[in-house]
Amino acid sequence: MGAARKLCLIMVDAMRADMLRAAVEQGKAPHFAALLERGSERECVSAFPSVTPVCCAEIATGVAADRHWISGMNWYHRVEQRYVEYGSSFEATRAFGLFRSTYDVVYNLNMGHLSPEVETVFESLADAGLRSACTPFLIFRGRTRHDLGLDGLLRAGALAAGFKHAAWGPEEFFYGELFSSRPVDCKATLARPGTRDEYSACAAAELAGEPDSYDFILLSLPDNDFHAHRFGPDAMVGSLAHADRCFGRFVEAAGGIDAFLERHAVILMADHAQTEVEREVSFGEELASRWEVLGPSWERPELAELAVSPTSRAANLYVLPQAPDRERLHAELRDELASHEACELVAWLERPDGAPCLREGAGSPVYEEPAARAVVRRADGELRFRHAGGGEGDEPTGYDLRGAGWRLDGDPAVLGLPAAGRELASAEYPDGLARLWSALTAPHAGDVVVSLAPGWECVDWGGTSHQGGGSHGSLRAEDSLVPLVLCGLEPEAEPRQWRLTDVAGLVRSHFGLAPDAAAAGERAGTGART
Ligand SMILES: [Zn+2]
Questions:
Q1: Which end of the chain is more exposed for a tag (fewer CB within 10 A), N or C?
Q2: pTM of the model
Q3: Which residues contact 281 (CB under 8 A, 6 or more apart)?
Q4: What residues does the ion ligand 1 have nearby, CB within 5 Å?
């Protein structure tokens, strides 16, 4: 193998490009400034829904939701007939039960929900004999077994609740009170959002003293998202300054910025952006006036007609298999949503005969029904689209910025696409066709998916929103465009539009591995799907 340099991936949750620039210009982010000065910045498009679990899965695996299977902050599990909640808020966590939500976000997200058929970068690197390190990051699945940690207040409660399984993670794995691959003198504060950057910095700084302990390190700095949710995205400069100081602590432990960059290539990026929230909508409550909507702790899910999964500025809605006349319900539901001022885009899949694709509850979660096309409705019109291979009768209307061919039918302006011309680019909804397609065809996608209008956010199942602050989740550019700074790293290709799914390839390529997870798996002989 023998990659010359280590690689450090810094993930600053919700960092906006304009706020990064402001922090640098005001002299409040000297370490990030050094990366920008010696490296180069690109614009990168987030996942859809643009929320952290979906984004982290894309960053770690290099594939979108149709292949990694994580569909939101909250989604409905058709086989288990229950909601999965990764912690939209403390109140939402409590509504589903602290134990259940913690179990979902720590164990199930990685060991159960994340597709076993895709590889994380931690797994790819381990198979090539390289060592990875990771501070708390939602997707950490790796090849090394870690027992539940020995310290921390959470441990007593966790054990009492029967929460005691080992996890499989990277070789060096720091996950607050729960897991630690080695004893570190760092105060774990996993349970207190807004105070986690310091823990990440402390764990990374401890590793800096032992350079052989890792080849790749993922340094997560999540506090910026918490602060921006609370105080609004315009208040981001302060929390970015804090993130910079925490990265600086790692840099200083490694001998200062020159020595650090001598030994590390660096990727500095965010998972999604944030935008102001002025109004809130509770789909759970509103739709319950017309249909039986499954509540968080219903004992008898078989009585419900609809499941509603708010995921910040997007939502998945499920027409349950036991509901009578599902096709009519689906039609009424999408009409109701489309007429709601909070919903900007209402999307679903339809079959060749024009009927909506409705998933069944049982069996494999893999989506197998042949969808004819996706439909997306906005106040001013409707657009139908599908992939087009280029064969006879399958000629693309145009190509997106990544060269994929699409066949459109209807009004392209619905997704901000040009009315004429072969290039399907949208400033309003960047990479909108591919992102919407992967969100709709993902196994746990709702039967209807909505992206909210500017200023709106869904109330979560705990009854809270970030009204007066900031949020993200929609298909819109302001939620979705993030900075991607590469320093000491030369990409093999320069796509016209970068995506979060490119990052895993950058990591693998840096170490001489095939950028694609499936190809990396084949090389390592792990039997990845072809
Ligand atoms: Zn957030």
A1: C
A2: 0.94
A3: 340, 342, 452, 456, 457, 458, 459
A4: 225
